[in-house]
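stage 2 :: seqdesign
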């Protein structure tokens, strides 16, 4: 039973990764967008300017996702390993966003290379929540590099981590908390208290995956002409100064690996934040954004291989299914 369970999980993870690599995010009807609309509808009933209301809102939604994931996983298990693998593949595909991240980052680089700032500004909201209207080419480039770095963890490594560690319920709950953090976890006046729980849950869920991502960034740095030592040094030296306990880790590692300097004044729709600098090089140029996308894709591939391998190993370190 255990062998078939882990074999199904490994096969489902691999299939989900392949589906994301081939298809990317669906343009319409994405389950994450459906969840977001449901969360927004619930917010109209649960909103109050308090942490307790936000914790209730977040808890109800995450518990619902966990129940749905557990029910789907058990339904697949009753039908056999193949059905369970299909359920795992669907959940993994829904949670992953690495392929779309790479495509958007590459398109941003194309716009900036062509000097098409209007198109770059229109595209930026697909990567992050900064105010594109106030950004010049340098600001757009830095925003894109930092977003590619952070979302390499959030959109790819972390979902794979939770899919490998906890299966369907865990990966769906992770995608839910990450979506809620994007929706209500900011520090605007409306969400300073209501979004507190979502932001803290997201910090906890991403704590280990962010550090795994930074390690993989160091491993993959030579593929883009970077230095593993510089990535690790920037992580150790600069990450703790970032306001996010997780984004700072990944962005610092990317800065070191690419030999650029990230951070500085960052204009969001709700406020201007003065971020610390990460890395010791010059500000990133468009060719550094291209390298960041290549580095992100390399990290995504290695993370997928590691996650699938982890899922195929039994509790005692032996392969769970010799025929997998």
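stage 2 :: out
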């Amino acid at each position: 039973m255990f062998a078939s369970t882990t074999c199904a999980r490994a096969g489902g993870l691999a299939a989900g990764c392949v589906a994301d690599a081939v298809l990317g995010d669906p343009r319409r009807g994405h389950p994450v967008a459906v969840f977001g609309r449901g969360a927004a509808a619930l917010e109209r009933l649960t909103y109050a300017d308090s942490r307790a209301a936000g914790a209730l809102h977040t808890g109800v939604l995450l518990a619902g996702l966990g129940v749905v994931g557990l029910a789907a996983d058990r339904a697949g298990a009753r039908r056999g390993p193949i059905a369970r693998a299909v359920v795992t593949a669907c959940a993994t595909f829904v949670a992953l966003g690495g392929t779309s991240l790479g495509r958007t980052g590459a398109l941003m680089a194309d716009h900036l290379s062509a000097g098409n700032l209007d198109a770059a500004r229109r595209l930026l909201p697909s990567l992050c929540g900064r105010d594109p209207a106030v950004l010049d080419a340098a600001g757009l480039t830095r925003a894109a590099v930092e977003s590619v770095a952070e979302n390499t963890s959030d959109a790819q490594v972390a979902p794979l981590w939770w899919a490998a560690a906890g299966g369907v319920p865990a990966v769906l709950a992770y995608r839910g908390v990450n979506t809620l953090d994007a929706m209500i976890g900011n520090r605007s006046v409306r969400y300073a208290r209501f979004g507190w729980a979502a932001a803290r849950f997201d910090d906890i869920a991403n704590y280990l995956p962010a550090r795994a991502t930074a390690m993989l960034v160091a491993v993959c740095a030579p593929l883009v002409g970077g230095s593993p030592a510089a990535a690790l040094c920037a992580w150790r030296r600069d990450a703790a100064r970032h306001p996010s306990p997780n984004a700072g880790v990944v962005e610092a590692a990317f800065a070191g690996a690419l030999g650029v300097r990230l951070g500085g004044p960052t204009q969001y729709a709700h406020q201007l934040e003065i971020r610390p600098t990460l890395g010791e090089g010059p500000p990133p140029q468009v060719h550094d954004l291209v390298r960041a996308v290549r580095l992100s894709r390399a990290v995504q591939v290695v993370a997928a291989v590691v996650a699938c391998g982890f899922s195929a190993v039994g509790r005692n370190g032996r392969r769970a299914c010799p025929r997998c």
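stage 3 :: structure notes
- Strands lie at 265-267, 272-274.
- The chain has one domain: 2-311.
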